[in-house]
Amino acid sequence: GIPAEWGERHRIMLLYNGCEADQMVHGYECHRSWENAAMTQPSEAGEELPLGYLLHRVVGVLRPHVGAQLRGLEIGLPELVCLRMLSMNPGQSSAELARNTKVTAQAMNQLLNRLEDLGAVTRPHGSASRALPARLTPEGRKLLKRGQAAVLLADEQLVGSITPAELRQLKRILYKAGDCANDTAAPHNGE
Questions:
Q1: Given this model, what pLDDT does residue 23 score?
Q2: CA separation for the pair 175, 178 (Å, rounded)
Q3: Strands 37-40 and 29-32, how do they pair?
Q4: How far apart are the first and last CA of the chain?
Q5: Cα–Cα distance, 52 to 96 (Å, whole number)
Q6: 3-class secondary structure for the chain?
Q7: Contact assessment for residue 90 and residue 136, using Cβ atoms and an 8 Å cutoff
């Protein structure tokens, strides 16, 4: 069966990967090809595993390291992403940021309110806070710089066995895959 310490997220990913709970044995991973489902010892390269599963594994390892690094700055990853987006495109409204990060407008507005409370973001005061342009303050730029340094430290902890050249190649591939996904996910406007 599934080891108890794996938790619900692993169960969901196993189901995504075509595995049933009773097909799992500790130390082995189940994968499903189009022709059959089989239990195999995980390959060193993981080439036969779905990309979504591999990305989930990396995020599952990286997120706690990033969270631990950012905790000292009193922000989380969502706040850091928002700061980065505002540094790249100042003046976005809460609604624009929400669309670009695929979160609800309400969640983004709450996040911006928190960043305002920290003195990292400023918005003009008005009645429709979702439509107000947000900008980084000098404190926000400092916080972004410290947050990015913290994320790089977490990256280094994660990729200790990956060479710098492999890491650069991985980043290029993931960036390219994201661009391809964005190109194919564009709406067809009724066509």
A1: 41
A2: 5
A3: antiparallel
A4: 47
A5: 27
A6: CCCHHHHHHHHHHHHHCCCCHHHCCCCCEEEECCCCEEEECCCCCCCCCCHHHHHHHHHHHHHHHHHHHHHCCCCCHHHHHHHHHHHHCCCCCHHHHHHHHCCCHHHHHHHHHHHHHCCCEECCCCCCHHHCCCEECHHHHHHHHHHHHHHHHHHHHHCCCCCHHHHHHHHHHHHHHHHHHHHHCCCCCCC
A7: yes
> 101-119, pLDDT tens digit by residue?
888 989 999 999 999 999 9
Q: 158 and 62 in contact (C-beta within 8 Å)? A: yes
Task: Give the Cα separation of 59 and 77 in Å (integer).
Answer: 12
Neighbouring-strand partners of residue 135:
122
**Alpha-carbon gap, residue 118 to 133, rounded angstroms:** 17
pTM here?
A: 0.66
Whole-number Å distance between alpha carbons of 140 and 155: 22
Over residues 139-156, the pLDDT tens digits come to 999 999 999 999 988 888
Average pLDDT over residues 82-107: 92
Q: For residue 59, is pLDDT > 80?
A: yes
